[in-house]
Design goal:
The protein is mainly alpha-helical. The chain has helices at about 10-35, 40-50, 55-65, 65-70, 75-90, 100-115, 120-130, 135-140, 160-180. The protein has one domain (about 10-180).
């Protein structure tokens, strides 16, 4: 039985474009530090191509770790988080839950880039929520709540703890609140 974190391929294609938007919003933080490394930008482009149906899930599953390797050896924390946002966006082809990982890493990158701005996290989350289409919201609502299913990125791993977990919980709470109002 497939994990509920996987989502259908159609839903993964829908959320891949949103995840790419989230990652692209903080990409400049990585490129300012490592301008000659195009792996995160390529991962975002591949995520968009997957969303358009131009790439297969199988092909992207094999390439999903490439952007994450760009974070290795980088000492700037915001740049690392931005590269990881791109890596998570590229992972959506494999498992839809990675879309929330892309968003969470983008929030972390924005917060790290603006440590003296207490509103940076809230503004980034608001932007992400405003950027969601009805189809993206519907697909993301199909994901289990963070920590309730151990078979994927929303399980007991890195995305559940600290700032990443807080961002995902905030996104999921907002999705549920908006659903209740509809």
């Amino acid at each position: 039985m497939a994990s509920p974190q996987a989502l259908s391929e159609a839903d993964r294609r829908i959320v891949a474009a949103w995840a790419a938007d989230c990652a692209e919003r903080v990409l400049a933080l990585f490129e300012a530090v490592v301008p000659d490394d195009d792996r995160p930008r390529d991962a975002i482009a591949r995520s968009r191509a997957f969303a358009r149906g131009e790439l297969s899930a199988a092909g992207e599953i094999r390439r999903r770790f490439v952007a994450g390797r760009a974070a290795q050896g980088v000492t700037d924390a915001a740049a690392v988080a931005a590269a990881r946002a791109a890596a998570q966006a590229s992972g959506v082809a494999h498992m839809g839950a990675h879309a929330l990982g892309a968003a969470a890493y983008a929030v972390k990158a924005a917060a790290l880039a603006h440590p003296d701005d207490p509103g940076a996290v809230d503004r980034e989350l608001a932007w992400q929520l405003d950027r969601m289409t009805a189809e993206v919201r519907d697909a993301l609502r199909r994901l289990p709540n963070l920590g309730t299913d151990s078979a994927g990125p929303l399980g007991a791993g890195l995305l559940m703890r600290g700032a990443l977990g807080s961002s995902i919980r905030a996104l999921q709470a907002a999705l549920n609140a908006r659903f209740d109002q509809v």
